[in-house]
């Protein structure tokens, strides 16, 4: 006769009794503070602690929180775009603090249609181009739309581009539409000769020889340099988040090594006093200083974009293939690249056509006589 075991956990048929399954405790949701801290740490890596601290000083807590989420949105995947938007909002907030005498400023509630109108007049008085003004206003409008739609804040977007921004193709400083200054090669040579430090030479290489945008230059990190190849190859993040690789000249490598010293990580260009990443405004100061030392006319107008525009124009002057120059410059459309050359040569081309008409008219007049 078979004996059936009994006892705790065993049923009368000899099978182990199933313990009731206890449901797992519900996961604790992340607190809003934890989410904000995670976003803050990611933005420190993306835009730099200096920008983040400057924003936190000048903005009130509500606006600063919205800016954190706005900059971390996947709509702004490019680091260049994030850093540029952060700089634009920071400068508008600083202007508002200076105008009102209040700091920090409640940007989302203090900015009205009339306040933005006053800012537009200020931007015009500074001689900013139509494109620059529209960039600032687009960043501001995007922030307000994010606050209204995502954070459900009861705010009205004070930006009206048709009213506040001049249309593209116009100028606020007396220059004709699209008239980017282009230097003669002799002026570029004088600018190169004015370089006195390793950083000066490196900036000149990146802007003129490599034709990079100022935002691309200040975004470069030492980790972007591939030293497994000789000479080293530099990876550059272009507009739209696309990466390209550029081979540096031997001279540039020497200046880069002298400038970096023992540094093996972090931003390539840093401010000598703060050790923080340089921004595009500091880059403009460098090109203007070089222009003054080179004794170029109107040195205050020699910006990083002037060096890039000069490089593009001279490549087209030398009959380099348009498609190759377009790819080198990182332009999405060939018409943008061609526009540099056309603006430079339109005067000569139109003069030649006019002189042709003068010659034809003289010939017809001679036949009448």
Automatic annotation (TrEMBL):
InterPro entries: CB, DNA_brk_join_enz, Integrase-like_cat_sf, Integrase_catalytic, Integrase_recombinase_N, Integrase_SAM-like_N, Tyrosine_recombinase_XerCD
Top-level taxon: Bacteria
Keywords: DNA integration, DNA recombination, DNA-binding
Biological process (GO), any one: DNA recombination
Residue span(s) of domain Tyr recombinase: 178-353
Domain Core-binding (CB): 61-148
Segments for region (Disordered): 1-29
Molecular function terms from GO: DNA binding
PANTHER family: PHAGE INTEGRASE-RELATED (PTHR30349), TYROSINE RECOMBINASE XERC (PTHR30349:SF81)
UniProt-recorded name of the protein: Recombinase XerD
Species name: Saccharomonospora viridis
């Amino acid at each position: 006769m078979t004996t059936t075991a009994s006892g705790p956990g065993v049923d009368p048929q000899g099978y182990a009794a199933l313990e009731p399954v206890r449901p797992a405790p519900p996961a604790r949701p992340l607190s809003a503070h934890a989410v904000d801290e995670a976003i803050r740490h990611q933005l420190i890596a993306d835009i730099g602690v200096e920008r983040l601290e400057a924003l936190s000083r000048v903005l009130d807590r509500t606006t600063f929180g919205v800016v954190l989420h706005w900059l971390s949105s996947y709509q702004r995947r490019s680091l260049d775009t994030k850093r540029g938007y952060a700089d634009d909002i920071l400068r508008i907030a600083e202007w508002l603090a200076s105008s009102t005498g209040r700091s920090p400023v409640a940007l989302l509630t203090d900015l009205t249609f009339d306040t933005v109108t006053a800012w537009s007049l200020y931007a015009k008085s500074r001689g900013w181009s139509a494109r620059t003004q529209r960039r600032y206003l687009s960043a501001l409008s995007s922030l307000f739309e994010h606050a209204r739609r995502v954070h459900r804040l009861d705010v009205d977007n004070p930006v009206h581009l048709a009213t506040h921004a001049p249309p593209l193709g116009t100028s606020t400083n007396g220059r004709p539409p699209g008239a980017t200054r282009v230097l003669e090669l002799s002026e570029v040579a004088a600018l190169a000769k004015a370089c006195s430090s390793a950083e000066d030479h490196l900036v000149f290489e990146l802007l003129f020889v490599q034709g990079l945008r100022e935002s691309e230059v200040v975004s470069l990190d030492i980790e972007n340099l591939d030293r497994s190849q000789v000479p080293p190859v530099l990876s550059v993040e272009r507009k739209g988040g696309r990466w390209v690789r550029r081979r540096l000249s031997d001279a540039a490598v020497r200046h880069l090594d002298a400038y970096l010293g023992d540094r093996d990580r972090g931003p390539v260009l840093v401010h000598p006093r703060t050790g923080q990443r340089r921004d595009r405004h500091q880059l403009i100061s460098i090109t203007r200083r070089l222009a003054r030392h080179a004794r170029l006319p109107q040195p205050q107008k020699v910006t990083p974009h002037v060096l890039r525009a000069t490089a593009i124009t001279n490549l087209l002057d030398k009959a380099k293939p348009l498609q190759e120059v377009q790819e080198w410059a990182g332009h999405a459309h060939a018409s943008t690249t061609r526009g540099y050359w056309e603006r430079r040569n339109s005067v000569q081309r139109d003069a030649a056509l006019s002189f042709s008409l003068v010659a034809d008219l003289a010939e017809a007049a001679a036949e009448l006589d």
